[in-house]
Amino acid sequence: MMKNAMLSLLVAAAIAAPAYSKKPEPHVWPEVGVETKINFPNQGAIRNFEADGSEGIWLEDRQRRWYYAELLGGCQELNFAQAIGFDTRGSATFDKFSTIIVAGDKCQVASLVTASKPLPRKERQKLRKQALAAGKDVAAPSN
User: Which residue of 24, 55, 76, 143 lies most exposed, with the fewest beta carbons within 10 A?
Assistant: First the structure.
């Protein structure tokens, strides 16, 4: 009797262990770059964000789907923000008509599109430097 109970506990633990050890995979959009909206951003629908300099921001929702919000005129403090707010102007959705609040400043959203998970910050900076260097070579050829 005791062996059966112990055996059933071990089997249950073995079945449950892989389910808890797996990290959930991020959601992959069927189409990236499609204009969209996020429902209920002020009630925990957005779980993470990552600034793209002062020009835009990546947002991750509860289902691990990523979005990219391009900002009008940039947002100076965004790159250093630890927290942000969302002004949906009375609506329950965050979209291209919404505003991001960073350090008391309002930053108007120009577009909100579906996106893939952003590259790590160091890789993005490296690629940006390479692009700038390539642009300088093209613009000012040496003789």
Answer: 143
Residue 111 reports pLDDT greater than 90: yes
How far is 97 from 111, CA to CA, in rounded Å?
8
pLDDT 10s digits, 53-109: 889 999 999 888 999 999 998 889 998 999 999 998 888 999 999 999 999 999 999
Residue 63 to residues 24, 60, 109, Cα–Cα distance (Å) = 9, 8, 22
Q: For 5-134, where are the E strands, in sequence order?
A: 38-39, 46-52, 56-61, 66-71, 85-87, 93-94, 99-102, 105-115
* pTM for this predicted structure: 0.70
Residue 139: C-alpha distances to residues 57, 88, 133, 135 (Å)? 29, 42, 10, 6
